[in-house]
Design brief:
The structure is a single chain. This protein has 28 helices and no strands. The protein is mainly alpha-helical. The longest helix has 33 residues. It is globular and about 70 Å long. The N terminus and C terminus are likely disordered.
């Protein structure tokens, strides 16, 4: 019987490493909770795969049955309105993020900008553009202690305030150093927001809609980029320094709106419980889940689960950065940082920040035409993110990423071949030939279409999933620190891409996109082998996902004799058997006991 399991045997524990013992303690603790249920509920909790997720052990069967499945838009929009409002308002942080990314794209091609700042070369342009990412890296690392101590909400407020100051400095820049300093300060604010906003959205959303809620952050980023491109296009006709100053200064508007709106936003219920404000957490959950009824059963059940998880983490786990490198969190850290690295090395920032250079290289040299193409690029990015918002909780994270990655590989290869053909055509014969001009123009237009298709493929896959997965896989006591580290990984790789892209485009041209297709092929293998599916799981259930086998691809095809309630890896099964906690046939005996 599971009730007779004894984890206090020092003789057995001495033969186990601390990580293995932690796995054993966690799993047996879960089993004890199930064993304490009435017989009829125990059978349902152990032997059924609930549609809410593969691991119903951490919740009562009643709660599991009532949890919405997240297949498509919610049936009761009134009930879901509070969380949509909260996630949408804090997503303004994503809009600021996107605006800062996109605003320099066309400005660097503007005549008045180049005249005012002394016609910066490729390296100087890379420094101006990438100075934002250095600030973002610093801000992402600073966000963890602030979010843990002063709350996710107040860290977002601080990010909006810093962004307002940075925007004022960039608007008034009189030399390159001042422009770089202003963009660095803006970067610090974006580092705060990019780390904390997805975490805040994740902690205030129910499992069935968490993917949709966090995807609003990516959609806001795409809107910020699109708005920046549109403003750049409109301002390109201004015949003065306002041509570039106005786009730089308009960022103050959304930052002030976010700063004011956060006064009406709730604190994260998980942060409140972690700081012993349980009654406040109950009120927040009531507002977000049950029309403001804090005494509703679903509120009590979720609060109980959060409280139990946080209490367990306090008793058994440390919350230092070193904990991220220890078993079983090491796998999550590698996966979270890997997701951010892989997202940036899709080359999306090459296509968003330096698309004007690409358009210029394929025969479109007018500032107005380049700005128009960029505005269309931003519109493609916005519209292609919508499917992910609507259906990512139905498709799942793995399938979305696998499909998007395959499409990106194909479109990058076609783009590289088209740009190579364009170079061959324009270099081989005279531009006086009408036939050659038409051929080159067609190749240029087809290349632009391929750029849009790569952006569209990124927008519904790597765009939202790159932020969603790191925000949901870590335990509560490490979530702020982990998100700061994974977001820092994003900004390191972002810095490398933005700094080197102008130099690489100048040196190797179309070959850069062939290199991106090869990198994406490697990403495809990593996602297939190591990324587990996390849709519809509570943030507390993630522990069981990451205590299982590292091989994600085998999860849907577990052997029929392995019970669905505990898909243990061979390593975990070996540890249990070696300590006597799991004898051969114990699983079958357990199944018999609950029937």
């Amino acid at each position: 019987m599971l009730l007779l399991l004894d984890l206090q045997s020092k003789r057995r524990q001495r033969s186990m490493c601390s990580g293995e013992r932690l796995v054993l303690e966690r799993k047996v603790a879960v089993l004890r909770c199930v064993a304490a249920l009435p017989a009829n509920e125990r059978a349902g909790a152990l032997c059924q795969r609930k549609p809410a997720g593969r691991y119903p052990l951490l919740q009562s069967s009643t709660h599991s049955a009532q949890r919405p499945q997240g297949n498509g838009p919610p049936a009761d929009m009134k009930k879901h309105t509070p969380k949509y409002v909260v996630s949408s308002i804090v997503a303004l942080g994503g809009l600021l993020f996107g605006y800062d990314i996109g605003i320099m794209s066309s400005i660097q091609e503007m005549e008045h900008f180049n005249e005012y700042f002394g016609h910066p070369d490729a390296l100087a342009t890379g420094i101006i553009v990438s100075s934002l990412t250095i600030g973002c890296f610093a801000g992402s690392l600073l966000s963890a202690p602030l979010a843990d101590r002063y709350s996710r909400k107040l860290t977002i407020v601080l990010g909006a305030a810093v962004c307002t100051a940075g925007s004022a400095i960039t608007y008034g820049s009189i030399n390159r150093a001042m422009l770089i300093a202003g963009r660095f300060i803006n970067g610090v604010s974006i580092g705060f927001l990019s780390s904390v906003v997805p975490m805040y959205q994740s902690e205030t959303s129910p499992p069935a809609n968490r993917g949709r809620m966090v995807s609003l952050q990516q959609w806001a980023i795409t809107w910020g980029i699109f708005i920046a491109f549109g403003i750049d296009y409109g301002c390109s006709y201004i015949p003065s320094a306002r041509q570039f100053r106005l786009p730089l200064g308009l960022q103050i508007v959304p930052s002030i709106v976010l700063l004011c709106a956060m006064a009406f936003m709730p604190f994260s219920p998980r942060w409140l419980v972690a700081h012993d404000h349980v009654s406040d957490a109950r009120q927040v959950l009531g507002r977000l889940r049950a029309y403001g009824h804090a005494s509703a059963p679903e509120v009590a059940e979720e609060l109980r689960l959060i409280h139990q998880t946080i209490r367990y983490e306090r008793e058994h786990r440390s919350s230092s950065y070193w904990e991220l490198l220890r078993f079983p969190n090491r796998r999550r850290t590698l996966l979270g940082c890997g997701m951010q690295f892989m997202q940036q090395f899709t080359g999306i920032n090459t296509l968003m920040l330096y698309a004007p250079t690409i358009f210029h290289d394929i025969g479109f040299s007018s500032v107005q035409s380049v700005a128009l193409f960029q505005a269309i690029n931003g519109l493609v990015n916005v519209s292609s993110t919508v499917p992910a918002i609507l259906w990512i909780d139905r498709w799942g994270r793995r399938r979305t990423l696998l499909v998007g990655t395959v499409l990106i590989i194909v479109f990058y290869m076609v783009l590289a071949l088209l740009m190579r053909s364009y170079s061959a055509v324009t270099d081989a014969q005279s531009h006086d030939s009408v036939v050659i001009n038409m051929s080159a123009r067609n190749l240029g237009i087809m290349s632009i279409v391929m750029v849009y298709l790569v952006v569209a493929s990124f927008a519904f896959s790597w765009g939202p999933c790159g932020w969603l997965i790191p925000s949901e896989i870590f335990p509560t006591h490490l979530r702020a620190k982990a998100n700061s580290v994974t977001t820092g990984a994003n900004w390191i790789s972002n810095f490398v891409v933005t700094l080197t892209t102008p130099v690489l485009l100048e040196a190797i041209g179309w070959r850069l996109f062939m290199a991106y297709s090869i990198i994406m092929a490697g990403n495809l293998v990593i996602i297939y082998l190591f990324l587990p599916e996390t849709k519809n799981l509570t943030l507390e259930e993630m522990d069981l996902v990451f205590m299982d086998s590292v091989w994600a691809f085998s999860a849907p095809w577990l052997p029929s004799w392995l019970p669905s309630w505990l898909p243990m890896s061979k390593r975990t099964r070996h540890v249990l058997a070696a300590t006597g906690e799991l004898e051969s046939g114990t699983v079958q005996n357990t199944d018999s006991a609950v029937k």
